From TrEMBL, chains A, B:
GO terms for cellular component: cytoplasm. It comes from the Bacteria. This is RNA methyltransferase. Residues 34-105 form the RNA 2-O ribose methyltransferase substrate binding domain. Keywords: Methyltransferase, Transferase. SMART domains: SpoU_sub_bind (SM00967). GO terms for biological process: methylation; RNA processing. Belongs to the class IV-like SAM-binding methyltransferase superfamily. RNA methyltransferase TrmH family. One of its GO terms (molecular function) is RNA binding. The keyword Iron-sulfur does not apply. Transmembrane segments: none annotated. The lineage of its organism: Bacteria, Thermotogati, Deinococcota, Deinococci, Deinococcales.
Amino acid sequence: MTAPAPITSLQNPQIKRLVRLRERRERERSGTILIEGARELARALHAGLAPEAVFSCPALHSPEAAALAPTLGLVTELSRAAFEKVSARENPDGLLALAPTPHPALPEPGPQAVTVVLHGLEKPGNVGAILRSADAAGAHGILVLGRGADPYGPNVIRASQGSVFALPVAVMTEADALAWLSARGFTTFACTPDAPRTYWDAPLTGRVALLLGTEHQGLPVEWRGADHALSIPMQGRGADSLNVATAAALMLYECVRQRRVQGKAI
Amino acid sequence: MTAPAPITSLQNPQIKRLVRLRERRERERSGTILIEGARELARALHAGLAPEAVFSCPALHSPEAAALAPTLGLVTELSRAAFEKVSARENPDGLLALAPTPHPALPEPGPQAVTVVLHGLEKPGNVGAILRSADAAGAHGILVLGRGADPYGPNVIRASQGSVFALPVAVMTEADALAWLSARGFTTFACTPDAPRTYWDAPLTGRVALLLGTEHQGLPVEWRGADHALSIPMQGRGADSLNVATAAALMLYECVRQRRVQGKAI
């Protein structure tokens, strides 16, 4: 028995489906996401995601992709032209999978859990960078509110380097998020440039929710209390403000630092 | 007297020159840089840079560009097609200037100066993000060593949002940088994932140089001392390491925090 011939036609229905899935609407309609890249796919598998299909182009394989591909079971081979057609990357590594959209349950938080609440962040690069930092800082999970970047979109997956699969990323309504956090006694801190209190001066131990958004006026009023607004001091001669992903990393690691000073595990 | 007609020909020598200047080699040969965008140009002007020419396309102007353009003196108007040809951006704001490559002198550092040393960093987005954070954290200056991204290239200027003009960014040889730092009593700290000492545990006050690079083996041996290696603790389930720009921001702001705890101005 020989392996089936690779798909070469750009008109092949599977190729067309993969291209359509680059659109958020199509991902939402079908409940399916694209996972491109060996590193990202390895992390999704490690998190227990079961791909419904894997597409591979050996001519494009990175060493990491070449090592992973044989372990993946049923793989459909694509020609180089076909793979480049479906890839969202400039330098694809020749691996792309389809998987059901994750709907991770948020585990019950520990007493020192740090949760990140993203409100309407639009740039996939920022969302991905925040997920990566949140994972590195040991955050408990991510709540995604509002109509920002699709956390399971290809650009967020790439920018997060797969961290989106390593910690629970839950898409919620504002009301549900607020109820979830309130019921568990989280204190919510919003990062705003003009807050009088710096992020070093706030008690960031206990259950903490860090709120990051591009606009705050749409938030429930409970999240706008002045007690809970924090700023990051800026001495800059040029910059208006820190990038939101940088601000997130600083606040996340201040949570870690304060736990460490108090001898508490995150 | 009427204004000269806009340049519409894509074969115009000025258009061709602007396109050539997107290449680093051509910028280095001519000692000229491109500054695109109203925000970036405003910061360059504020830093005292004198553009040798400004190109404008009113049809593309953002409100910020429309406000800045009339203040700029002699401006050459380009048609929309011509401007889009010379722009390096997806959504140009209709302002682009040529200026001599800056060669800022490093001012003598204060007793609490923090200097960032970039060694061979290749991604313009990372270099730009580090410049932005360094500016926000009040760093004294940036030393750029090795053949990484051109700090005055269009993508670094954009990613830094013009911060590259707000603080001194000096391109140096390793030997000159080491001599400069040693003569002034800087302590150099390198960020490496496996260092036993965390960045919270090192005394980061006094004159501090933060070394960031993609590879350390090419550095002078004095910069590789284990005393001076710092790590950022990572609890991540997915991420291999923090992005270098995130690591830079964390270390820069730890310098600020320690100065603040000790009542010292940066």
